Amino acid sequence: MTTLASLENVTRRFGAVTALDDVSLDIESGSIVGLLGPNGAGKSTLLSLLQGLRAPDAGTVTLFGSSPRDARTRIRLGCTPQETALPDPLRVGEVVDFVGAHFPDRVPTATLASRFGFDDLLRRQVGSLSGGQKRRLSVALAFVGRPQLVLLDEPTTGLDVDARRTLWNALRREHASGTTVVVTSHYLEEIEALAERVVVIDGGRVLADDDLGRVLAQVGVTRVSLALPAAGAQDARGGAGAASSAMASDARGAASVLGVVEQLPGVVRTEFDERGEPTFSVTDSDAFVTALVREGVPFQRLRIRGATLEEAFLTLTHSDTDAADAADTDAAVDEAPPGAPVESDRHPSRHSTRHPSSTTTTAPTRKEVA
Ligand SMILES: Nc1ncnc2c1ncn2[C@@H]1O[C@H](COP(=O)(O)OP(=O)(O)OP(=O)(O)O)[C@@H](O)[C@H]1O
C-alpha cells in the first residue's frame, strides 16, 4: 500500500466560516474511502483541495507525492464533481472522446460505455439524456484516463434504485481492477455498500476514520424497540418495582414510564415511529433489558437489532450538539402542550424526534467516539 494523497493539518476558511479545521488524512492505494458528513460538513472542500482547485490556508495537501496545484500531477486523478455541465449539442461518444483526448493512455469509448452501461446512448446528444443518464456519463468520465485515484462527490444523486445499483457495480469493478476511490454520499446505504473505510466529518473536523465495521463498533449502539402501555407511553402506571413506586410517589404525577426508561443506564437516543412507539439506542442491550425487568417496566413487542451506518453516523455527528439541544428541548418543553413531540434536531440531516419528557442524554462525547 502506498499513500496516494494526504492532508496534513489542513485548515481552509471562507471568510468567517472554517470549512476544514486542522484535518489530517491519508488516502492509501487500493481502498474505497467513504466520506460522510451532513450538509456543510466540509466534504466538497476537502475534495477541491485534493484536486488543486483550492489551496489550504494552513497545512499541506499532497497528491502523488507532489502538489495537486500542478496540472502534471493531476493527470493520474479522475473526478466527478457534485454538479457537471456537459455540452448539450455534443453526442455522448463525442464527449467521451473529447475528455479522453486529454490523457496519454485512455480507455476506448466503447469499452467505457460498456463498463458503465451506456452503449446504447453513444450517438445521443447530451441534451436529450435524462438526469440519471447524464450523471452516469459524468461518473464514467472520471475513469476515462485510467486514473489511479478517483474522487466522486455524491455520484448517484438523482439516480433511481436500479441505476444506483448498476453504478455501484461499475464502481466495484473499477476498484477491483486497481483504482482507488474516494466517494462522498448522502445515501448512507451507498457508503455501507461500497466503502471499506469511512471518514466521518462534521464542522470541518474528522470525527471518525476507520474501517466500516469498526466505525459501527466504535459507536456500538444497539436499537431496542418496544411498546409501552398507554398511548404514547404517557402516564402508564401498571408496572411493579422501583419504577412504578417512584411514579406513584411523584406528587405531580408527571413522571412517565417513558421517562423512567430513558433514564436507564446506557440510553443514548430515543426516537418514535408513526404510532408513537419508542426505539431506544442503547450501549448494552442485555443490560438495558435486564434493567427494564428489574424496574418492573411493563413492555410488549420487544425487538433488538444492530445500528445501521446511518444511525452510527447520526450518533457521531450529534454528540457534540446534544448538550445544546438539551437546553433547546428544555425551553421547548416549557412551551409545548403535554404529549406533543418536540423537534429537537436542528440539523437538516437529523430525523429523530426527542420526546419532551426526555431530559437526559448520555451520548458519548466526540472524544469518546472519535
Ligand atoms: N466558495 C465558498 N464561499 C463561502 N463559503 C463556502 C464556499 N465553499 C464552501 N463554503 C462553506 O464551507 C462549509 C463547507 O462546505 P462544503 O461544500 O465543503 O460542505 P459539504 O460537506 O460538501 O456539504 P454538502 O453535503 O451540502 O455538499 C459550508 O459552511 C459552506 O457554506
TrEMBL record:
Domain of life: Bacteria
Keywords of the record: Antibiotic resistance, ATP-binding, Nucleotide-binding, Transport
Domain named ABC transporter: residues: 5-228
Localization (cell): Cell membrane
InterPro entries according to UniProt: AAA+_ATPase (IPR003593), ABC_transporter-like_ATP-bd (IPR003439), ABC_transporter-like_CS (IPR017871), ABC_transporter_ATP-binding (IPR050763), P-loop_NTPase (IPR027417)
Membrane topology: Peripheral membrane protein
Region described as Disordered: 328-370
UniProt keyword Transport, yes or no: yes
GO molecular function, one term: ATP binding
Pfam families: ABC_tran
Keyword Nucleotidyltransferase: no
Low complexity bias locations: 355-364
Principal subcellular localisation of the protein: membrane
Protein name: ABC transporter ATP-binding protein
Species of the source: Herbiconiux aconitum
